[in-house]
Design a protein that fits this description.
about 350 residues; alpha/beta; D-Maltodextrin-Binding Protein, domain 2; 2 domains; 5-stranded mixed beta sheet; 4-stranded mixed beta sheet; 15 helices; 11 strands; about 45% helix; globular
């Protein structure tokens, strides 16, 4: 090829590349891919996204996500949130609907690693190539076989009344809850929240011994997670273990005498996941919403309304909390779907055992 022709063509090619470079950089920074653009087009034609369930009940969260998602992707749709069954019951319903060949009653499902494992075992969740839709999704957030995405990290611990628990008496390790000072002042949950995970760090024997001693001396009653008003009122001085800080942090920020602490000997991280049931009536919107929930905009709303976000995303509040623990030499132990697979029966056995102890059986 003539040298002049070659140089002219090379120069033309470089000019084209130089023109396209800003676009490529913008797409990479925003996480936009061709697959995502195609999904947005499909979502725009569906019009409505139905979310039935529990866990995130603040209407401000759902209306905020609806507006932010419309602004981000340039589409119009209605996000219809219906407060419904608890996560375990809804998971069971979705499995029954899938086996019966019926469309699911919700376009998206929110649940813990245990609920997602049950749905996955039944084949009731759609497998989606999430990385193709957004390469910025943290790898650790994607559930096995692409059945969902973790969007919120929950760190169980102890919630306590700040007027009734002096600073030097705030529990640091699990056995601090056995202090005689707290005789018949501590609550727990009837479902033994997080104790099965704690056993993976401390041992079954240690947790069993602790619970028996707690029931014998300091347990005052059983309440559900998030019944913070019963701690604020002084009915109970503390509650352990929690399902996560969540509303406790919001109440604390508003001046309520309540706070949450993570125990240094059982620093646990559990997740809330989002997934799309098979045969969802609005599958494109459901997938788009799932991807959206790990964006900066969605995480900000999640923290402002529920005081949760995902520690796998750099800069989030929970990310900073985990980094602070690490600086203190405390390494949190993660229990996502990946960590539960193959051990779910063991966790079920431990949970049932601990529930019976707490119920005095």
């Amino acid at each position: 090829m003539n040298k002049k022709i070659f140089l002219r063509r090379a120069g033309s090619l470089l000019a084209v590349l130089w023109f396209l470079l800003p676009v490529a950089i913008a797409d990479a920074q925003s996480g936009r891919t061709q697959a995502l653009d195609n999904l947005i087009k499909g979502a725009a034609s569906e019009g409505e996204l139905v979310m039935l369930g529990s866990g995130i009940d603040d209407p401000k969260a759902w209306s905020g996500w609806e507006k932010a998602m419309q602004a981000k992707y340039g589409i119009k749709f209605k996000l219809k949130f219906i407060r419904g069954p608890a996560m375990p019951q809804l998971a069971s319903r979705l499995i029954q609907e899938f086996k019966a060949g019926k469309p699911p009653t919700t376009d998206i499902y929110i649940g813990s690693e245990a609920h997602f494992l049950n749905l996955h075992r039944a084949g009731a969740l759609e497998s989606v190539n999430w990385n193709a839709l957004s390469p910025t999704i943290p790898g650790g957030a994607i559930a096995p076989d692409n059945i969902g995405i973790a969007f919120a990290s929950r760190m169980p611990g102890v919630v306590y009344n700040t007027k009734l628990v002096p600073k030097n008496k705030v529990p640091r390790v699990l056995n601090d809850l056995l202090d005689p000072q707290w005789k018949r002042k501590i609550a727990s949950t009837p479902y033994a929240a997080a104790f099965d995970r704690a056993a993976m760090i401390l041992s079954d024997e240690a947790v069993t011994r602790f619970l028996k001693e707690l029931v014998r001396e300091n347990l005052a009653g059983l309440i559900r997670c998030a019944e913070d008003e019963r701690i604020i009122s002084g009915e109970f001085t503390m509650m352990a273990l929690t399902c996560g800080a969540g509303q406790t942090d919001i109440l604390n920020a508003k001046g309520a005498p309540i706070a949450h602490v993570i125990l240094q000997d059982i620093p646990l991280i559990n997740y809330w996941y989002l997934g799309v049931p098979k045969n969802s009536p609005h599958p494109s919107l459901a997938k788009l919403f799932t991807v959206f929930m790990v964006t900066e905009e969605a995480q900000k709303i999640l923290w402002e309304t529920e005081a949760y976000d995902l520690h796998l995303i750099k800069g989030t509040n929970t990310y900073r909390l985990v980094e602070e623990l690490r600086r203190k030499g405390v390494e949190p132990r993660v229990f996502g779907v990946q960590e539960v697979v193959g051990r779910d029966k063991m966790f079920d056995t431990l949970r049932e055992k601990y529930q019976k102890i707490l119920l005095g059986k």
